[in-house]
């Protein structure tokens, strides 16, 4: 019984951490990253499609993203999607390719990104703690219903706390690495 609760809590915490990692990959740092645009939604023949499905995306230089559409007729729609996004870069079309020249981050923008990162880290920690609270509540309910003993509940709560501490430490490590990456000039 307690194993089921622990497995469920661990699965939810892993999913929460995966979402956090995805957000970090999309966050702009000191150099260009394909993650900034690969999930951008593009209107392609009336259908919303992710940019990574419509083009190959690479970083030929540290501060440049190169987009090569598979279908050349999609260039204008990709350009429009980039302009509508919040990445703050104007696309340059050179024939069949789109180049995004990433401007260097100002100190103020770096500090803004670090603040945003801190908020996202705290939101993710809160989500992990909510999963812990839910698991502990389930353990209490099982004890009230006499499905598990008080000792099993206490062991389960200790295991849930270990899981929580582990995932919160991972969030801290990922956040510190990303902050270092953002502040790197």
Unreliably modeled segments: none
Structural class: alpha+beta
CATH superfamily name of the largest domain?
Ribosome-recycling factor
Beta content: 15-25%
Q: Characterize the largest beta sheet: strand count, sense, and whether it forms a barrel.
A: 4 strands, antiparallel
Q: State the share of residues found in helices, binned by percent.
A: 55-70%
**Average pLDDT, all residues:** 89
Helical stretch count? 5
Number of domains: 2
Helix and strand pattern: HEEHEEHEEHH
Task: Please identify, by name, the CATH architecture of the largest domain.
Answer: Orthogonal Bundle
Order of strands in the sheet with most strands: 3-4-6-5
3D architecture notes:
This protein has 185 residues and is α+β, with helices and mostly antiparallel strands. The chain has two domains: 2-26 and 106-183, Ribosome-recycling factor (Topoisomerase I, Chain A, domain 4, Orthogonal Bundle); 34-101, Gyrase A, domain 2 (2-Layer Sandwich), CATH 3.30.1360.40. Helices cover 60% and strands 16% of the residues. The chain has five helices and six strands. Strands 3-4-6-5 form a four-stranded antiparallel beta sheet. A hairpin with a 2-residue loop joins β5 and β6.
């Amino acid at each position: 019984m307690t194993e089921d609760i622990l497995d469920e809590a661990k699965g939810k915490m892993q999913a929460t951490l995966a979402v956090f990692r995805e957000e970090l990959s999309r966050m702009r740092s000191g150099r260009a990253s394909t993650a900034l645009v690969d999930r951008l939604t593009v209107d392609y023949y009336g259908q919303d499609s992710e940019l990574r499905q419509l083009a190959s995306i690479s970083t030929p230089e540290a501060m440049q993203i190169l987009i090569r559409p598979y279908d050349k007729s999609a260039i204008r729609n990709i350009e429009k999607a980039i302009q509508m996004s919040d990445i703050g870069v104007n696309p340059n079309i050179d024939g069949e390719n789109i180049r995004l020249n990433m401007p260097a981050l100002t100190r103020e923008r770096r500090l803004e990104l670090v603040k945003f990162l801190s908020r996202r880290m705290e939101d993710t920690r809160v989500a992990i703690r909510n999963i812990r609270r839910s698991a502990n509540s389930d353990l209490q309910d099982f004890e009230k219903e006499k499905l598990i003993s008080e000792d099993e509940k206490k062991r389960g709560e200790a295991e849930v706390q270990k899981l929580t501490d582990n995932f919160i430490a991972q969030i801290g490590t990922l956040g510190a690495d990303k902050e270092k990456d953002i502040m790197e000039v």
